[in-house]
Amino acid sequence: MEYKDYAENPNKIIKSHHIKISIFIIFAGILLLIVYSSFYPNSVSKSITGNAMQDLKIENSVEITAELNAPDKLETTGLIEKVEIKIKDPSELSIGKEVIELSSSTSIIIDNYQGDLFTESNTITRLNGKTNKIFINGLPLTAQNNTKISISPTGFDYLKLNNIQLNSLSYSASGKVSLNNKKITVNLNNEEINIDKFVGNLEIKKGSLNLKGYIDKANIQKIIGVSS
Amino acid sequence: MKSKRKEALKKRVLIKTTNSRKVYLFIYLMIIILIGVIIYIKATGRPLNSYAIKLVIGFVIASVIATELHRRYNTYEVDEGSLVHTMGILTKRSRKMDFSAISDLYVIQTLWQRMLSYGSVEVRLFSGENTTHIKNINNPSTFVDIVLSKINREIGGK
């Protein structure tokens, strides 16, 4: 066994530094992965992790249409091709550094929206993200790429989310769910529904929810299991 | 008979110390940050990647095991007449330094180590052999005081 002074053995110090740097790189990598996959769930991180909804392949998916009562709470994070909202109450819309006062019954269309959209009891509680095209009452507002957009909490009459990727939706529902071109129809009466990995259009109007899109085949059992 | 002998040997060890856990403060901080970020993401209702969670769990377990093994790799014991440095976990190698052979004891502490009251002790021998480093132990000054008192008693005894 050698007992050498550290000052005489610089290789040990270099090795120790290398270990510390490696540990820090691993830590930074994990931290980056967590933050990136959580704040940008539809970005590149998903292709790394395989958690992407875009991984929903046609051969593994089943068509779904549903007419149900609207869920009390809806939370989505990620990319939505088009968001259509008709607000009920006056509100404030922030686009970049500008703030626009919106009167009641204003219709808003947001293209290529990326961010959070939370609703609760027919109220938009959070809309905070980025976009590149906005229309207010049909009038286009020019926006630079990835302009920040947010809205103060407001009630809505109509909400449509086109080409949304929903990780999960579960609530006590009443209504009709049709699968595979209406080959299977499930009627629900205040029963718990669990829809995972949905890709398609979602519409909330007058207290009802319409879904039209695709779900992963693996999730059919969950939905049918509810009605049995 | 054997247990009595073991007890007698145990009694002879006055201090047994290993690396301080304060050395791994940055690793513990990394673990806290990762867990804190996960809690924040959960609390804000954002999606949490399952692979990322598995990686965090792996990192936490690996870090705790690695730091504990690293801590226990070097043990330092002060017994009635000598200072023993043992290296290894499964295969152990130890060096015994008689108190009468120790010429100097140096306490080395950086500002950070002084703030957290840990540091290293450099043990030099009369023979001029290579210095032994007692690395990153808690309260190195107290450790040196105990060894010195033992050395003085040894010299006084003679």
Can you give me a brief rundown of this structure?
The complex is a heterodimer of chains A (228) and B (158). Chain A has 228 residues and is of the alpha+beta class.
Walkthrough of the structure:
The complex is a heterodimer of chains A (228) and B (158). Chain A is an alpha+beta fold and 228 residues long. In chain A, 19% of the residues lie in helices and 58% in strands. The model of chain A is unreliable at 1-8 and 44-54 (pLDDT under 50). Chain B is α+β, with helices and mostly antiparallel strands and 158 residues long. Helices cover 49% and strands 27% of the residues of chain B. In chain B, a hairpin with a 3-residue loop joins β2 (74-78) and β3 (82-87). Chain B is elongated. The A-B interface holds A 1-6, 20, 23-24, 26-27, 30-31, 33-35, 37-39, 41, 45, 49-51, 75, 77-78, 118, 167 and B 26-27, 30, 33-34, 37-38, 41, 45-52, 55-56, 59, 63, 85, 87, 93, 95, 129-133.
Give structural attributes.
heterodimer; A: 228 residues; alpha+beta; 10-stranded antiparallel sheet; flat; B: 158 residues; PH-domain like; 2 domains; 4-stranded antiparallel sheet; 7 strands
Summed over residues and divided by their number, the pLDDT of chain B gives a mean of 84
Number of helices of chain B: 5
The whole-angstrom Rg of chain B is 21 Å
Overall shape of chain B: elongated
Q: What is the annotated CATH architecture of the largest domain in chain B? A: Roll
- DSSP helix fraction of chain A: 10-25%
CATH topology term of the largest domain in chain B: PH-domain like
Instruction: Give the class of chain A from helix and strand content and strand pairing.
Output: alpha+beta
Helix content of chain B: 40-55%
What amount of the residues of chain A lies in strands? over 45%
Amino-to-carboxy terminus distance of chain A: 72 Å
Number of strand segments of chain B: 7
Sheet with the most strands: spatial strand order of chain B? 1-2-3-4
- The unreliable regions of chain B are none
Envelope shape of chain A: flat
Mean pLDDT of chain A: 79
* CATH C-level label of the largest domain in chain B: Mainly Beta
Distance linking N and C termini of chain B? 32 Å
Number of domains of chain B: 2
Largest interface by residue count?
Answer: A-B, 29 and 29 residues
